[in-house]
Design goal:
Helix content is 41%, strand content 24%. It is built from nine helices and eight strands. β4, α5 and β5 form a beta-alpha-beta unit. It starts with 5 loop residues before the first helix and ends with a strand. The structure holds S-adenosylmethionine. The site of S-adenosylmethionine (SAM) has 21 residues, from α3 and β2.
């Protein structure tokens, strides 16, 4: 059997999961409310993955025009299938979320802004926001006095900081915070439960790159299980000053 590449192995593990990171429909609804996103809004789901939140945005704002973008074609395909019911007003495309035109009333970005950097990404999106427009994003967040287990969990992301650090990055970009809440506990459990199911299905036939990718995913889950009450995203709704 021919060997698959590490990139292919990564996608075999993660593509088309229920979602590609922790989050709940209630987080999307909360952000729309805090941002005051109007019924007929133009919304961008930046780094949409397989489109879980794109569906929620479409349901929560049934008259909105929604664009979803991701850089990975396989995830774009999954998101397109998932949003087919809303195809008249939801467009999913492969592309770079750093290069978007807008204007958007809301840019929603779950677990993906760190790819651009909070400050850099918010700066880039400023010109893509309509007057009164907001950005809602979730970002890795250290809680007070993080344990060694919590630090081990985030060891692949050395830029991780606490809520004050994220707020400072937002301010540096020239934005103010309209609201914030923690994504912790149930959202992570749901994400890792679906990832564990995927691992269990793939494990029996896995070798080479796929076995390595499964090992890495299992290690991440084990690290979360060692400190579940400390592993969090901070979800923030922000607007340009
Ligand atoms: C952790 S996943 C989150 C996916 C989705 N928002 C969710 O919560 O299920 C991060 C996503 O950001 C996408 N991404 C990273 N950098 C990107 C870029 N510059 N342009 C578009 N998508 C990007 C990745 O391909 C990946 O699907």
């Amino acid at each position: 059997m021919s060997e698959i590449t590490p990139d292919e192995a990564f996608l075999t593990v993660y593509a088309d999961l229920a979602r590609e990171g922790p989050g709940m429909p209630a987080d999307v609804a909360w952000a729309l409310y805090v941002a005051g996103t109007p019924a007929t809004a133009r919304i961008l789901d930046a780094g949409c993955g397989s489109g879980a939140d794109t569906v929620t945005l479409a349901k929560e704002r049934p008259q909105a025009q929604i664009e979803a973008v991701d850089q990975i074609g396989q995830l774009v395909e999954a998101a397109r299938k998932r949003t087919a019911l809303f195809a008249a007003r939801v467009q999913v495309r492969e592309g770079d979320m750093a290069q978007v035109a807008g204007p958007y009333d809301l840019i929603w970005c779950a677990g993906a802004l760190y790819f651009l950097g909070v400050t850099e990404g918010l700066r880039r999106w400023r010109d893509a926001l309509a007057p009164g427009g907001c950005v809602a994003f979730s970002e890795a967040c250290l809680l007070a006095n993080p344990s060694a287990n919590a630090r081990a969990f985030w060891s692949q992301y050395p830029q991780v900081t606490n809520a004050a650090g994220i707020r400072a990055r937002v301010a540096e970009a020239g934005y103010r915070c309209l609201g914030e809440r923690m994504v912790i506990g149930a959202a992570w459990e749901a994400y890792y439960t679906s990832l564990s199911d995927r691992i269990a299905r793939l494990r029996p036939a896995a070798h080479g790159s796929l076995r390595d990718a499964l090992d890495e995913a299992e290690q991440e889950i084990a690290r979360w299980k060692a400190a579940p009450s400390e592993i969090a995203y901070l979800l923030m709704v922000v607007a340009p000053e």
